[in-house]
Amino acid sequence: MLASELIAQIENYAPKSLAWEGDRIGIQLGDPNQEIHRVMTTLDVRPEVVDEAIARDADFIFAHHPMMFHAAKDLDLSNPQNAMYAKLLAHNIVVYAAHTNLDAAYPGLNDWLAEDLEIVEDVEPLLPNPDGQTGIGRIGNLAEPTTVAEYAEFVRETFNVAHVRVIANDLQRQIQRIAVLGGDGDSDYEAAQAKGADAFVTADVYYHTGHDILAHDMVVIDPNHHMEANAKPKMAQLVKTWQKTYQWDLDDVYVSEVNTDPYTYI
């Protein structure tokens, strides 16, 4: 099959129109008209992920985060980022990224996170689009109330991280209505609180924003941006479903096993 066939289906599922302005979504590198046989899903496109793709003969990388957050200023291959681009081109690997459009899609990344976090009742977009169904973040209720401390431990285990950062005035407070926003969402804690959230799960909370959160007596649990890696198997399952539905000639669809979390906790 052609890469363009998979790209068209991704964009049908997570339309580009849902993406934030300026988000570097879409094809990142390669020829959309080339034949593809093996698809790998990943959160980030990093040199070690590319090496994995080469070792496993992947010719299409379906990523969540864009590969080019910063444009290349030259093609000096002593730069690891440029060397990565060269490897991808040399091995004819197409790279495609669905970022904030996949965040906002229904069901999309934030629905998957809500499911993982057991937010199962009355789930709706935190920051809805006009259609009321798509949008950034999700908010809903747990089946049963729990404490901040207990839920923070559950979040830590769910996202398989060494630690989570908890911003709360009372770790024993009962919580049940939970908001989640994958990635950097600290500026949206007030929106979560205004919608009645008892706690907000998001990442990259800024130090001074943490003080504001405490002053507003809100609860925020930060498992770090790598929380979105939980989407990798869901992205692969999408491709497998489409493969079956449209009878695509793909040899394999698999999830990257590389941990791209840049943080080490000591």
TrEMBL record:
<protein>
    <recommendedName>
        <fullName>GTP cyclohydrolase 1 type 2 homolog</fullName>
    </recommendedName>
</protein>
<comment type="subunit">
    <text>Homohexamer.</text>
</comment>
<feature type="binding site">
    <location>
        <position position="225"/>
    </location>
    <ligand>
        <name>a divalent metal cation 1</name>
    </ligand>
</feature>
<dbReference type="InterPro" id="IPR002678">
    <property type="entry name" value="DUF34/NIF3"/>
</dbReference>
<dbReference type="InterPro" id="IPR036069">
    <property type="entry name" value="DUF34/NIF3_sf"/>
</dbReference>
<keyword id="KW-0479">Metal-binding</keyword>
<feature type="binding site">
    <location>
        <position position="228"/>
    </location>
    <ligand>
        <name>a divalent metal cation 1</name>
    </ligand>
</feature>
<feature type="binding site">
    <location>
        <position position="103"/>
    </location>
    <ligand>
        <name>a divalent metal cation 1</name>
    </ligand>
</feature>
<comment type="similarity">
    <text>Belongs to the GTP cyclohydrolase I type 2/NIF3 family.</text>
</comment>
<feature type="binding site">
    <location>
        <position position="65"/>
    </location>
    <ligand>
        <name>a divalent metal cation 1</name>
    </ligand>
</feature>
<dbReference type="Pfam" id="PF01784">
    <property type="entry name" value="DUF34_NIF3"/>
</dbReference>
<dbReference type="GO" id="GO:0046872">
    <property type="term" value="F:metal ion binding"/>
</dbReference>
<feature type="binding site">
    <location>
        <position position="64"/>
    </location>
    <ligand>
        <name>a divalent metal cation 2</name>
    </ligand>
</feature>
<dbReference type="GO" id="GO:0005737">
    <property type="term" value="C:cytoplasm"/>
</dbReference>
